[in-house]
Amino acid sequence: MNTKQRNNRFSKKGHPNKSMLKHAFKESFLKLDPRNMIKNPIIFLVEIGFFITFILAIFPDAFGNSNVEYWFNIDVSCILLLTVLFANFAEAIAEGRGKAQADSLKKSKIETMANLIKGLGQIDIVPSTKLKKGDVVLVSQGEIIPGDGEVIEGLASIDESAITGESAPVIKEAGGDFNSVTGGTRVVSDQIKVRISNNPGESFIDQMISLVEGAKRQKTPNEIALNTVLISLTLIFLLVVVTLPFFTNYLGFQLEIPVLISLLVCLIPTTIGGLLSAIGIAGMDRVTQFNVLAMSGKAVEAAGDINTIILDKTGTITYGNRMASSFTPLMEMPKEEFLNWVSLSSLKDETPEGRSVLQLIGQLGGTIDEKDLENAKIFEFKAETRMSGVDLQSGRKIRKGAVDAVKEWVLEQNGTIPANLDSETMVISKEGGTPLALAVDHQIIGLIYLKDTVKPGMKERFEQLRQMGIKTVMCTGDNPLTAATIAREAGVDEFIAECKPEDKIRVIRYEQGQGKLVAMTGDGTNDAPALAQADVGLAMNSGTSSAKEAANMVDLDSNPTKLIEVVAIGKQLLMTRGSLTTFSIANDVAKYFAIIPAMFMEAIPKIKILNLMHLYSPISAILSALIFNAIIIPLLIPLAMKGVTYKPLNSNSLLKRNLLIYGLGGVIVPFIGIKVIDLIVSLFI
Amino acid sequence: MKEVRNLFIPIIRMSLIILLLCGLLYPLVSTGIANVLMPEKAEGSLINNKKGEIIGSKLIGQNFTSPIFFHGRISSIGDNAASSGSTNYAPSNPNMIKRVKQSILDLKKQNPSIQVNKIPIDLITNSGSGLDPDISLQAALIQVNRISNETGIDKIVLEKLVKKHIEGRQLGIFGEEHVNVLKINLDLFKLMNK
Amino acid sequence: MIYTILTIIIALFIIVIVAKPFGHYLAIVFDYETVSFKKTIYPVERIIYRLSGIKQNTQTWKQYALAFILTNGFMMILIYLIFRLQDILPFNPNNLKALEPTLAYHTAVSFITNTNQQHYSGENNLSYFSQMAGVIFAMFAAPASALSISFAFMRGLSGKAFGNFFVDFVRAITRVLLPIAFIMGFVFVFLGAPETLGPSVIAHTIEGAKQEIARGPIGAFLSIKELGNNGGGFFGANSAHPFENPNGISNFIQIILMFLLPTSLPFTYGKIIGKKKQGKTLFIAMLMMFLIILGITLVSEYQGNPDINSLLSQNTHGSMEGKEVRIGIGQSAFYSVVTSATETGAVNNMHDTLTPIGGMMVLCNLLLNTVFGGVGAGFINIMMYAIIAVFLSGLMVGRTPEFLGKKIEGKEMKLIAVTLLMQPFLILVFSAIALWFPMGYHSISNEGYHGISQIIYEYTSAAANNGSGFEGLKDQTPFWNITTSIVMYLGRYFSLITMLAVAGSLSTKKLVPESSGTFQTDTAIFGMILLGTIFIVGALTFFPTLVLGPVAEYLTL
What we know:
The complex is a heterotrimer. By secondary structure, chain A is α+β, with helices and mostly antiparallel strands.
C-alpha cells in the first residue's frame, strides 16, 4: 500500500497558512529578547551590532568622532535588525509548524469522562485528566478511551482514525500483541477494561506534543558539533574585525564602527546560524508529517546513519497473507475426495491462508460441503503447535500445518510418511513457497503450496538502499529454503530464516559490534527488547505499548516499510545542515570582495582594483552586502523547511552534486546577488 | 604526580645523553673527519699569498673600491665578514630608491661609457648576505672600459680574463652564471704586476 | 628562467620518487612490531635506553603528551643555561659574551619549538659551544619531538597504541635524523661549507684592507638545519651567506633536504592507517597549493620592482635586492617558497626585500601552515583541516561525519575549534598589540604598508614555527623577545596537544565499517574540498590584513 496516498492527518497543516505566518511574525519580535537570543550566539552578535549602530544612529559620536552620514547608521541598524528578525522568523515558522501539529494532536486529547473501576466493581466517573498510571477504566461502545493503556479484559473494535487517519476499525483484545489502546480513540463495538499506563501529562501523545512543539527540543550531538565549528568561525572573524582598526590606525586612517560591524556581520555564518534550529525542527516535522512520531531529534539523525536495516518479511517485504496456489496430492486418491479433505481442513480456518485454500478449491471446481463438520471439534492454529485441524464426529482427524509439525503428529499416530514428502516439500520451498502438509488420521495425503508475494517496488528500494550503503536483513519464520527464495526475489542482502525474537537481538548486537547502526521495525511485545537494542526502533502504532515504549519512533500508520523513508529523512536533515553551512561559508568570498575595497578605498584609492563587482560606491557596496546577507535567510527558509533534495545515490555522487550546488553556488550566487542589490541601492543614493 | 616523577628520570638522562650525542659528539666527529678529508674547504676555502698570509676566502666577497679592480655588489655591511646581512629594504622603501639612484649616478661617474639601460641589476642592489663574492657577467663586462683606462691593460685582454672567470651553473643547471670578484681581481693583480 | 624551471622540475621529480619509499621507510622504522637494524642501530639504541632509564612501555596519549612537554621544557632550560653561560663554557675562541636573559630565553624557546626565529646574529653572539650544544642539539631534539608526536597521532588515528615518547624520540634521532645529517654534513663541506672550530681569521686584502672572516662548524650545522626543518642560520644572513650556501648545487640540496620529511609523512600516514591512497591524496593536495604559490612567487620576482625597472628604463631584470648572484632570482624564489612551505625558515635571500606579492605568497605559506608544513607539525595541521573538510562533506552526504571509520562528534570538533582559533588569535592579537605600542611599531624598518607585513610576518613565522623573518624588523628587544616567545610556545604546543587529544578521542571510538554511503577521503573530490576548506577557513581569515599589507604595497608601488 502506498503510504503517500493515505489520508494523512498532518499534510494539510504542513504548509504555512496565513495565521501561522502571522504568529511567526509576532514571534520573531518576541524572540528579540537578548536572554533568548544568547542561545544562538551568532545571531546574538548581530543583535549586539544592531544595538551599537542603533545608538550611533541617535548619537553619531557616542563612540568617538564619526564622519559617517547619519542615515548610514540608520540603514545599517535597520538591516541588522531585519537580519535578526529573519533568523527569528525562520525559527518561529518552523516552531509554528510544529505547533500546528501539536495542536492537532491535542485535539485528539479531548478531555473525556472516564469510568474508573474502584476495587469492588464500584465505578466512579472521573475526568480523564485525573487518571493515574495503573487505574483501570471501563470503556463501552461509543465511548472514547480516556488514556493510553492496555486492554486487560474483553475485545472490542476500535476506531483509531483520530490518530492514524485510517477509517477501518481495528480489533483490540486482552492478552497477545493487540492489547494496546491509545487515548482519544473510540470504541465502536463491545466493551473493554483498560489499564491506564501513564500518569497525566506523560502519555504517548503528551510526549509527542512537547517534542513537536520544540519545547523539549535538545540539540543533537551533530548539531552541537556543527555549532562548535560555527562559533569558532564567528570568534575568528570577531578577532579579524576587532584587530583591524589597529592595523589601519598604524597606517593613519580610522575605520567607522558601522562599517566594521557590517564586515563582521557579513563574515560570520549568519545564514546557517539563523537557519540551524529551523532545519532541526523542520526535520522532526517532516518525520511527523509522515505520520511517524520520533521520540527525539537524535533518533531522526541516527536514522540517517543507519548501516543495517532489519525488516520482517511478512507484511513488510511481502504481503504476508500467503495464498494457496496449488495442491500436491501425495497419495493415490480421486481428485474430488482429495479436494474434499482439503476443504474440510480449511472451512473453519479463518486465517487468510485458510480462506485462500477455499478460494483455490472453488477455482479448481471442487465443492464445499459444511455438512461433515457438524459437531466437529475445531483446533485453531496456534503458534506452539503450528497446526490447525478438526476432529470430525466420525472420529477422523484432519490436521493441516507446517510440514515438520504435521509429520511429527502423524508419527505420533503411528502413521506413515510418504516417500516423496521431503522431495515435494523441497520443490515448493525452493520456489519460495511455503508448503503446508495435510494429514488425515495417520497419513499425509498432500501438500498445499502457499505462495508469498513480494510487494511491488521493494526490489528497487533495496537496490537504492544498497547504493546508499545500507544493508538489508530480512527476518522470517520460514525455513531457510523458502527464506532464500524470497530474499532473492526481493533483493535483500541477508536473511535470517526460522527467526525468533532472540535472533533479532543477536543480529543487532552482532552488527553493532562491528560499529554499525541498526534500524528495525516491530510491533509485538517480544520485539520490545530488540527495538530497544536497535539504534533506530520503529514501532507500529498497532503494536503493544511495551513495543512502543522500547522504540524511539512510532509509525501511526503501522506501515513497516516507512523505515526506509525515515532513513531518507534523517539523511536529508544532515545534508541540509551541511549544504547550507557550506553555502554560508562560501558566501564569504564575495562579501569580502564587496566590503574590503569599500572599507579601504578612501584611504588607499588603488584598492579600487579589488572592487571586482564594480559596485557603485563604498556605501552602496557595504549596504548591498548587508542586505544580501539579510535576505538570503528568508529566501532559504523554504529550503531549510523542505530539506535539500535527497536522491538515493552513493556518497561520492551526492557530494559532487551538493558541492556543485551549494559550494560553487555559494561562491557565485552572492556575487550576482550583491551586484543586483547594488544596482537597486545605487538608485537611492 | 607519581607518574610525573617517574617521567623525570628518563627526561633528564635522555636529554643529557642526546645533548652529548647530537650537540657535541656529532659536530666534533664531523669536524675531525672533515678536517682530515677536506682540510682546505673545512677551513673556509681561504686564499693565501706567497708569504702565507691569508688574503681572503674564495667564497667571501670583498669590498673593492679602487677603480683599477673589478667592483663587487653593494654591501650594507661593507663586506665585513665578521658579520653578515643586508639592509632589508622593502620594495616600497624610499631609501632604497634613493640608494639605487645614487648607485646609478656613481656607476655613470666611474664608467662614463655605460648606458643606463645596460646596467645589470646586481650592481645596483644590495646582496642578501652583504658578502656576495660574485657579480654577473654583464656586471663584469661593463667595468672593463674603466679598468682598461685606469690600468692600461688592453680591453681585449680584460674581456678574455672575464670570459676565463665565468663560473657556469653547477651540472649545467643549478645556480646562475657568475664571475667571482676576488678571483678575477687576483688574476688582474698578477697581470698588473707582470 | 629556463634553468629555474628545470631545477624545479628536477627537485619535484626527486621528491615524487623519494617521498613514497622514504615515507614507507619511516613507517617501518617507527613500527613497534618490526625490529629493523638488529645489528647496526639497535645496540646503540639499547645503550641509550639503558643509560637513560627508559622503560619501553606503552603510554596513553596523555602520558605521551606529558612526556613530550616536559622533555622539551627540560631541554629548553638546558639550552637557556648554555646561552647564559657561554662566556665561561669551552669552544669560545672569539670570546663572546653571554646572551642577555630575554634573548637567551627567546632563543631557547625558538630552537626547541622548531621555530629557529633568531633575534641575534650567530657569528656575533654565539660561541661554538652554544652553536653545537645549544643550537645543533635543539635542531635534533625539536624535529625528533615533532616526528614522535606525529607518529603517536597517526597511531591513534589508526587505532593502534600510542607508543612511547622516549622510544620514538630516540628512534627519530638514531634512525632518521642523525644518519642523514651526518652524511649530508660532509656533502656540504665538500661543496664549500667550512667545518672548523678555529676562530675567525683576519684576511689582508690586495687593496691593503683587513677583512675579518667568521667561520665555524657549518657543514654539520647546515645538514640538520635543513633536514629537521629548523632553519636557524649559523650566520645572521642564514643560507644567503656564502659559507652557508656556497653555490647552486648546495642550494638545490638544501631544498631537497627541507622537502624530505614533510613530503614523506603523508605516505607514512597512508601506510600506517593502511590506506595508501589517502596519503597520496594529501600529498597531491599539498603539492597543488605549493605549485600555485610557487608560480605566483616566480612571476612576481621575475617582474621585479617597477620603481627600479623604471629607473633603469628596462624591465627584464627581476628583483635582485637581497639576493645572491650565484643563486639567482628564480632559485632564490624557489628556495623561499620551499622554506616557507616546509616551515623551515632558512633563507637564501632576504624575505623583507621580496616583491610585495612574492613576500605575500611566502607569508601565505606560513599562514596556511599546511603546504607540507614543518616536520610532523605541518602534517598534523593539515589533518586538522582534513577533519573539518570531512565534517562538512560528511554532512553533505547525509551521514554523521566519519574519518577513518571513526565518528567525528562534539568532542573532537571542540578540540579542533580551539585549535583553529589559536592561530588567528596569536597572529592578529599580537600584531595588533605590536602596532599599538611604540615598543612594537618602533621596530618597523620599512614604514607604511610594508610595516604591517613585517609585523604580521614576524608573528606568523613564530606561530607557524617557521622562524624566517622580514629581517628588517628590529626585533632584538625585550618586547619582541617576550611576545614572540609566547607566540612560538603556544603555536607549537597548543595545537600539537589538542590534535593528539583528537587522536586520543578517536582512538577509543568504535570503528564504523565502510560502505558505499561512507564518504571517501581518498578521492580527487576530497582533495578539492580540503583545498577549499583550507582556502576559505584558513586563508580568508587573513584577507583584510593581507590587503592592508602586501596587496596595498603592491598596488601603490
